[in-house]
Amino acid sequence: MNDSPAGRLQTLFEGHRLTPTQRRIAHCMVRRAADVPFLSSVELADLAGVSQPSVTRFAVALGFDGYPALRRHLRESVPAAPEETVGHNEYQQAVLGEIENLRHLADLLADPAPVVRAGRLLAASRPLPVLGLRAASSQARGFAYFAGKVHPDVRLLDEGGSMLEDRIDAVVRAGASTLLCFALPRHPREVVDALAYARTSGLTVVTVAESAFAPVAAHSDLLIPAPVGTGLAFDTACAPMLLGRVLLEAMADELPDAQARLEEFDTRAATRGLFVD
Predict the structure, then answer these.
(1) Which CATH class is domain 103-269?
(2) pLDDT class for 183, splitting at 50, 70, 90?
(3) Where in this chain does the record put each HTH rpiR-type domain (predicted)?
């Protein structure tokens, strides 16, 4: 079990049927896990972009008498600051925060079943569309680059706009069965809309997101969370990137000719002098 602030919040939220507004509050709390025990209901409402009564109803939905009781519970469960973070500057703390995120991911992967299932779904899809817009475009592009070495038909969807649904239609006509999405905050509305459209088009949606309470969760058949770092002005995404590589490994394990394809690529690359060693 992950004992980080974000991990404890995830555990607290599990098993509760939350409304979209409540999922938004939960997502905000996970992102600001270290600060939440010290925020008023008004401050949390402002951060989540909801009303103060919504925060109160959220606390009641979790089984507390109100938000003060929820905050008291969170304060009582806050551990002392880890020794390794004491005395470090903000840049070091950001790195240490990412190390903690990777530990969280390692704990999650103790149960490999979701990743194995995702690998089977990705390997079986011909073609395999990979979606990622704005902040998540680099994650999608990196996955698609390496996936193309072992999968026969990978199609990158990293541009939004009116053509996105057309491109989803095209992969469905070509025989795709699964779409892989990388979704990171802040979540573009067109990603949420695209996933909803993909599912109505018959695609199974596998998503990598920072939290099980991300806005894309409602439109995902299988969501595997990997936390992002929030210690700097712009989020850092080491854990989602690593999870993408893990999914690549799981997919390659399901492709019987993956190794042969890699060896063929290496032979061609050597013949072309593609890389400088």
Answers:
(1) alpha beta
(2) very high
(3) 5-81
CATH topology assigned to domain 5-76: Arc Repressor Mutant, subunit A (1.10.10)
| Contact between 50 and 25 (Cβ < 8 Å) | yes
> What is the per-residue pLDDT for 47?
86
* Rounded Cα gap, residues 108 and 7, in angstroms: 10
The full DSSP string for 214-251 is SGGGGG-SEEEE---B-SSSS-B-HHHHHHHHHHHHHH
Which tens digits make up the pLDDT trace of 76-105?
Answer: 876 544 555 557 788 888 898 899 889 989
- Opening angle at CA 110, ends 151 and 226, nearest 5: 65
CB 158 within 8 A of CB 181: no
Phi and psi angles of residue 166, each rounded to the nearest 5 degrees, phi first: -60, -40
Query: Helix, strand, coil proportions of the chain in percent (round to 5)?
Result: 55, 10, 35
CATH 3.40.50.10490 domain position(s) in the chain:
103-269
Element (H, E) at 131: strand 128-131
CA dihedral 37, 59, 225, 175 (to 10 degrees): -160
Q: Please check whether residue 70 is in contact with residue 64, taking contact to mean a CB–CB distance below 8 angstroms.
A: yes
Contacting residues for 52 by C-beta, under 8 A, at least 6 apart: 41, 42, 45
- CB distance 23 to 213 below 8 Å: yes
Nearest to 194 by CA among 112, 134, 113: 134
How far is the C-alpha of 52 from the C-alpha of 49, rounded, in Å? 9
- Cβ pair 155, 127 in contact under 8 A: yes
